[in-house]
What we know:
The complex is a heterodimer. By secondary structure, chain A is α/β, with parallel strands linked by helices. Chain A is built from 5 helices and 4 strands, in the order αβαβαβαβα. Chain A has helices spanning 3-6, 18-27, 49-56, 78-95, 113-128, and strands at 9-14, 36-41, 62-67, 103-107. In chain B, helix 2 crosses helix 3 (73-86), helix 6 (153-164) runs parallel beside helix 7 (195-207) and helix 6 packs parallel to helix 12 (466-484). At the A-B interface, helix 2, strand 2, helix 3 and helix 4 of A face helix 4, helix 5 and helix 14 of B.
Amino acid sequence: MSQSATTRVLVFSTNNISDPGIDLAGSRHLHYSPGVVVISLPCASGIKPSWIVHALTHGFDGVFIAADGDECAYLTDCSKRSAGIAEQAQAELVERGLSPNRVRLAAVCSVCAEPFTKQVTEFVEDLSEAVV
Amino acid sequence: MSERRIGVFICHCGGNISDYVDVAAVRDAIKDEPDVVVAETTIFACADATQTDMVQAIRDHNLDGLVVASCSPKLHTFTFRGVSRRAGMNPYLYTQVNIREQNSWAHTDDHEGATRKAIQLVRAGIAKTRLSTPLTPLEVETTPKTLVIGGGIAGLRAAVGLADIGLGVFLIEKEPEIGGWVKKFGTMYPSGRQGGKLIDELIEEVRRRPEIVVFTNAELVSKSGSFGNYKVEIKISGEKSMGLALDVGSIVVATGFDTYQPEVGEYGYGIDGVVTLPKFKQMVDSAKGELVYHGRPVKNVAYIYCVGSRQPEGNAYCSRYCCAATVHASLEVADVDPGIHQYHLYRDIRTYGKFELMYTQSRERGSVYMKYPEETPPTVTRRSSGQLTVTTRDLLTGGEDLEIPVDLVVLVTGMVPRKNEKLTNALKLPVGSDGFYNEIHPKLRPVETVVDGVMIAGACQGPKSSYESVASGLAAVTQSATMLKKGVAELDPMVAQVTPESCTMCGLCEETCPYDAVSRTEYEGHEVAQIDAAVCKGCGGCAPVCPEDAIDLRGYTDAQIRAMIENLAEVPVV
Lengths: 132, 574
């Protein structure tokens, strides 16, 4: 098993924006670590900070929020909300003595195949090198 | 918790999954999971025969949960919800697990890793299904009108089709006139009829139908609402600019293409006597008795194919229509003046289908075809003598270098995506790496986009001939009929719900919902929040703000997501 494959990242994606972007990465056969798994939700503003903490206390090394950014069809302030959710989770991690850098957020659009692959690969590398 | 009876089907997808994932190992890893009573692999889960088998399995084993691990939920959620429904099982007890786009295809370099990940994903799907509850889709009335954007051949034909199935149509065109590219075309293959004439007839058909309202000089500014009930704002320019708000149920985007514009110096572009294919077509269409360029008769023509197409940098795609268009133009040239020498310098000739007959005809009528190597394309110069000369290597005659004196060089340019940033942003349409709009699936859902109720037709989706454009326009008509003719649309019942026992009516959910879906009600003597299912959009944005964790999004409940996380976190041994 390669080093990167042992690094476990949970991605929260969104059904209409970032999940199609992640699908497109696969359709183009762009490679990233199989340690990366995805749960898709309607909107990044619906992620509970407690889910992020739950993931990081149950075996995941990192949580990557593939947010809707400004493209969210539901909420005009989705970017602000999802950033707030990540910050709330980070604060709770700090309280538990865990690194807040184990949570990363980036907007991933419906055709952001390369950006997603690049960002999640960098995150896996940072986590596996224990940079974060 | 009571026991469940879950069926799990793991798809090979031909080899798209099973070439990289050991699907039998996945089945063996999950078959003894609690509540799993059926665990099977299948070559194609979406095949009719497999669907029938699934219906039978649901009935035989009295299943109350179904997991299909196959492709993206974008493709087959509705297929397998349909299977569930046909078997008498509530469709929301079905979970689609994506082990293709988000697994096998992304990990073609790591079979063991992909197999391990597939097991995790399927286990998470089972965990989610175990906690699923039967749901009833919400019904909303739909607006029986469609907005068609673009008045070219695809948009016009779609408008006529939509009106004929009884839908109201608004057709908006950015230009002062409708008709698009085809209006400017001369003789077209295979009918031999004039493009302008075809469009005139279509416009006449549009005029005859009062259900179609046409706005020219008109552009879409914004879109709000949801599938079945969109509100669109239109801006009409001109002497009196005005805005217009329209209610429509669906939108067909048929904004067409632009033609590739070569850079100065590209294959001699900029030299007098070097023209693009569209320019040449105009010359041929207006030629009478002889072909004339700048007052000089044209006796020798060279066509250079694939200009701006199939390039390592720039447009990588084949523009498809240009080979056929050029071969067709050469036949027209032969009709004008059979004495003209025509030299076709090509990389590959792609005259697919019936166009192949045209290619044979062109050679029979004297056109000479020469294949140039990709790495040494032809060059175009004007000699000091004034002679326009094309130098090329002909692979078909042993790679000989040839110099061809000509009167005219035609650069066979293809279609490029039209720059439509404002429209793309307003509709949030996905754009592919080639710059054209993307459909959900080229074969299974060829005119639908990820934006529900917004369809694409014609060459805005990629290079197409006019008949292919019309075919896709009519596909968008059928799709609109499917969506709007029932008068009601089913919406996913994945809306937020309040657990009244836990609610303290702090009011945070009321504040956070921009749709005013939250109101107050009485529950066992205390005030609690309640969510109007018909108003709730299902974003789940209220769930994280509730300090009591009293809000759940149906289909994505707290318990389901936590169970999924736990199953994904567990690394299987393969």
